[in-house]
Amino acid sequence: MSASEFTAAVERTRTLGAEPVAPAAQVGAPEHPAPAPSAGLSSPTSILLGSLAFGALFLLAWQFLPPALGVPSYIIPTVTDLAREFGRMIQRENLATHVFSTVTVATAGFLIGSLLGAAMGYVLGMSVFIEKVLSPYILGLQIAPKVAFAPLFIMWLGYNAWPKLIVTILVVFFPILVNVLQSMKTVDRDLINLARAYSMGRLQIFWKVEVPASMPALMAGLRIGATLAVIGVTVGELVGGNTGLGYLITFGEGQANTAMVFNAIVLLTLVGIVLYAAVAMIEARVLHYIPRAMR
Amino acid sequence: MLKTASVLELIGVTKRFTAPDGVSPLTAIERVSLEVRAREFVAVVGPSGCGKSTILNLVAGLDRPSEGRILLNSIPVEGPNPTVGFMLQKDLLLPWRKIVHNVEFGLEARAISRAERRQRALRELQRCRLQDFAESYPYQLSGGMRQRAALARTLAIEPAIVLLDEPFSALDAQTKLILQKSFAQTIASSGITTLLITHDLMEAVIMSDRILVMSERPGRIVDEIPVDLPDRDDPLARMSAPRAREYVDHLLASLHLQEKAA
User: Fold this and answer.
1) Is residue A217 a contact partner of residue A182, using CB atoms and an 8 Å limit?
2) Number of domains, chain B
3) B14: domain range?
4) In a domain, B255, yes or no
5) In a domain? residue A262
6) What is the pTM of this model?
7) How close A248 comes to chain B (CA, Å)?
8) Which residue, A63, A160, A292, B144, could crosslink B175 as a Cys pair with Cβ 3.0–4.6 Å?
9) What's the pLDDT score for residue B260?
């Protein structure tokens, strides 16, 4: 996926929730997409160049400004300090193993959490009774800071991968559950009546109308979940264990190795971006029928 | 004879809804009796909130009458019914399906083969002059075309009667005229029995064989006007007929609109 596709996918989340609306047009003429904006400052190339220039400027400022202002490198290491430390971490700290551990737990937690969250959302969406009975508890759990459970899970399950995984699952679960449930509750009643008038049963209505209608909300939930998964796994690793990028943060902290902490944060961000991009790519495929208006 | 057989009959139908306070029930329609004969095009007009859409929900079997009986081809309506097709102001196309799959939607609860379903859908798209858009998605069509696709979906189930609930009211004036003509032709050529619910008096005059006038809530039928004009398949021709204006005036009088405006 190219950078522009990715930005376009990000743009589309902002319009999510809005029903796709075809603008009125003369009968007999199919809809034509709006003409591309004229070249100049708003052209995709100049936007990309602008972004790259900003990034370069930022890195340059990072490299030269702190030393110029007399900030020592153990407070803010320069970009080259970070690169040097990065090389050392690969050679001496088994960086690949830590990255692999974080990516695995984040991905597994994200997948399991979304699956459970979506399933629960659909079940509650199908049954008004269960939804009403459980809704105060769901609200409570949704508000509770899930990452705060991490020490509990460590006490129960020990210093292994399970506490991290469970925190990640828990963090991902709720936004997806809430999004799916909300969309199930707001499916157009007329659409459901139409399906009923066509003699469709409850299950057919679910699969043919409700599930597809909930896709935009599910996808929005997955995007939120993708970013939260990284937070979940990081907290899990910070609190306990001896592997993963979150562990490297506490380890670096203990050694007063600021560069290591910075590097771990950068890598965690990258993991999040990759996860998010994967979701955005899936979404672009699933929601292909929603017009890409207003880029 | 088949010609005069009634497809739809409402006999003394009353529908009451429980009010939000749960005490005083709200009577939407009261002792409504009407009949639609085979191949007939009947329009129902009335002020807003007179229970026009309640009639539609009852006939479609989505709701049950509080009193009275509803017969479709002499069989009482007791639930959603495959012989009733209905269309609303909203096209209700599924945005994630191609047009042809949208047209097939109404047939998917039936025991017919995939191939036949496709064949029927394509036939109806042809009838609605949308065959070139079978593979398009709804967002790629204009409002008028989407409404025609919805008509194709409605006709694909081969209903005994089609209920149209203000199907043109969300469209701009020009699209509306073109679509009224398009619908009139499609309905005339398929010989389908139609009940049109509308608040547009001219629309009722130019499209139907007979007009039923309803009163304000609780809705009752207060007048019945046979439209004795030629060209039912060409609303635009009817519109320019001088007598069309007379019918509209008559309707205005029976709805007492002049007095209310004064």
Assistant:
1) yes
2) 1
3) 2-80+200-261
4) yes
5) yes
6) 0.81
7) 45
8) B144
9) 65
Show the tokens assigned to B57. Answer: 């929900």
Q: What residue of A is the nearest CA neighbor of B98?
A: A289
* Tens-digit pLDDT profile for residues B152-194: 999 999 898 999 998 888 888 888 888 899 899 989 988 899 9
With respect to residue B242, please indicate whether it lies within any of the assigned structural domains.
yes
> Mutation test of the interface with chain A: which of B93, B96, B132, B174, choosing the one with the most A Cβ atoms within 10 A?
B96
User: How many percent of chain B have pLDDT more than 70?
Assistant: 94
Q: Is A20 on the interface with B (CB under 8 A)?
A: yes
CATH of the domain at A113: 1.10.3720.10
* DSSP, residue by residue, chain A: --HHHHHHHHHHHHTTTSPP-PPP--TTS---PPPPPPSSTTSHHHHHHHHHHHHHHHHHHHHHHHHHTT--TTTS--HHHHHHHHHHHHHHS-HHHHHHHHHHHHHHHHHHHHHHHHHHHHHHHH-HHHHHHHHHHHHHHHHS-GGGGHHHHHHHH-SSHHHHHHHHHHHHHHHHHHHHHHHHHTS-HHHHHHHHHTT--HHHHIIIIIHHHHHHHHHHHHHHHHHHHHHHHHHHHHHS-S-SHHHHHHHHHHTT-HHHHHHHHHHHHHHHHHHHHHHHHHHHHHTTTS-----
Q: Of B80, B82, B141, which has the smallest distance from its Cβ to A31's Cβ?
A: B141
Provide the residue range defining the domain that includes A120.
3-12+82-286
Residue in chain B closest to A196 (alpha carbons) equals: B80
Residue of A nearest to B59 (CA): A197
The answer to the question of residue A65 being in a domain is no
Cα of B118 to nearest chain A Cα, Å: 17
Identify whether A174 is part of a domain.
yes
A19 neighbourhood in chain B, CB within 8 Å? 95
Q: How many domains, in total, are found in chain A?
A: 1
Q: With 0-12 CB in 10 A as exposed, 13-18 as middle and 19+ as buried, what is B190?
A: middle
Is B118 part of a structural domain of the chain?
A: no
Give domain status of residue A261, yes or no: yes
Task: Say if B190 falls within a structural domain.
Answer: no
Contact B175 A194 (CB under 8 A): no
A27 to B145: CB separation less than 8 angstroms, yes or no: yes
Confidence of residue A128 (pLDDT cuts 50, 70, 90): confident
- CATH number, domain containing residue B74: 3.40.50.300
Interchain CB distance below 8 Å, B137 and A289:
yes
B126/chain A closest Cα distance in angstroms: 14
Nearest to B105 among A22, A190, A198 (CB): A198
